[in-house]
Amino acid sequence: MKRLPIALAGTAAAMIAAVPSVSAAPASVQQETQHVTYRGYDVTVPASWRVVNLDENPSACIIFDASTVYVGRAGDQQDCPAHAVGGAPSLWIQPLDAGTPTAGARTPERGAAVATQPDADGESQVVVREAGVLATSFGGAEAAKRLESATLTAGARPAAAGTGTATAASTASGTAEPLSAVEAPGTFKGRGFDACAAPSGATMAAWKSATNFRGVGVYIGGVSRACAQPNLTADWVKTRTAGGWHVLPIYVGLQAPCTSFAHRMSSNADTARGQGRNAAGAAISAAQSKGIGADSVIYYDIEGFDNGNDTCRKAVLNFLSGWTNQLHRKNYRSGVYSSISSGVTALSNTYASDSYSRPNHIWAAWWNGKANADLKPYVPDGQWNQRQRVHQYRGGHNETHGGHTLNIDSNFLNVH
């Protein structure tokens, strides 16, 4: 198979020798697959998958809206859309450096291939020390099987001793000391934003100085999460909270059965309720790994669906009941993000129902441009009226503050 090289950073021969080699082989008309090789680690993927070289374009967004192989180091600040739902099978192959978190990753005894099973978020990781890379799959079993069949080429070089030993809770200084948990989001009334990928520390500092934003939504996990989170660690959460930010953890898992999303819940009410409980367990694990402790609110992102479809609506309500019940059992509070006319309306209409468990907080996507917590006529004033509301009043748009640009959704918080 003919291999067409991706351009390497640098032009001088000495620089080229020092840069990790990246190659991709587009399939011919008759072929259905392509090889992607990075630092001697070779994976075979469908020819339709994109290949993005982060070493050449570090600001590129690691987004799972379409199947993609990302290779290289992520930049401090990715150029991501504010709101998206992912789930497309994808891979990220990055250098195995001293600070690379590898907790939970599998390590082949020899070679590159190793059997791996996606976790509850649809992700799996493999540490390949013989090539000095960490390979992560997203989106479930289809992507994970690409790691199981990976091979090494003659260009593979072993990682230096001691690389890839950091944990997910490592601090910015490189230590792995445990961090005390924070309670999210805390008490706050005012403006905030959410972004697909957690912004860098420098961006957060600049925005705090230049704006009155103090709430920040971050996507902590879920099989339908759209973006990777290279910045989001327990230290990031701890530092932002100590600096006066109010963090809203968002989990994006299975979506309504009457949608076209890649990962959907069952239309059977009992099954959906069990899936909601499972999602809550996975979300708690994700929250704890980011230093988000008990009594925190975790918001489930249920994207818009046909609220007039009775079977679909009941499946969603049962799923969210399972979600809420399990969070309460584990001493967390339940939140739900959804569009004002679908998920939020369904919850409002069953606010006093004995059949469904009520979430502690609602987060309504209603892009009316009004920065307040007034959700009438969809939600009466008497519902979730004890500082239990977030209103997403404007959808994805660019804002620049302190010289740092982000694509964000705008929110108004009244939370406790």
**What is the beta-strand fraction?**
25-35%
Q: What overall geometry do the principal axes of the alpha carbons give?
A: globular
Along the chain, the helix and strand elements come as EHEEEEEEEEHEEHEHEHEHEHEEE
Share of helical residues: 10-25%
- Uncertain residue ranges: 1-21, 165-178
Distance between the termini: 59 Å
Number of discrete helical segments: 7
What's the story with the biggest beta sheet? 8 strands, mixed, barrel
Q: What is the averaged pLDDT score?
A: 88
Radius of gyration: 22 Å
Widest sheet: strand ordering: 11-12-13-14-15-16-17-18
Instruction: Compute the number of strand runs.
Output: 18
User: Which class of secondary structure composition applies to the elements?
Assistant: alpha/beta
Fold and architecture overview:
The protein has 416 residues and is α/β, with parallel strands linked by helices. Helix content is 19%, strand content 26%. The chain contains seven helices and 18 strands. It has helices spanning 13-18, 141-148, 201-210, 234-242, 269-289, 310-329, 343-349; strands at residues 4-5, 22-25, 33-38, 41-46, 50-53, 68-71, 90-95, 124-128, 133-138, 151-152, 188-194, 215-221, 246-251, 297-301, 333-339, 361-365, 388-401, 404-415. An eight-stranded mixed β-barrel has the order 11-12-13-14-15-16-17-18, surrounded by five helices. A five-stranded antiparallel β-sheet has the order 1-2-3-4-10, with no helix packed on it. The chain has a five-stranded mixed β-sheet with strand order 5-6-7-9-8, covered by helices on one side. Helix 5 (269-289) crosses helix 6 (310-329). The termini are far apart. The model is unreliable at 1-21 and 165-178 (pLDDT under 50).
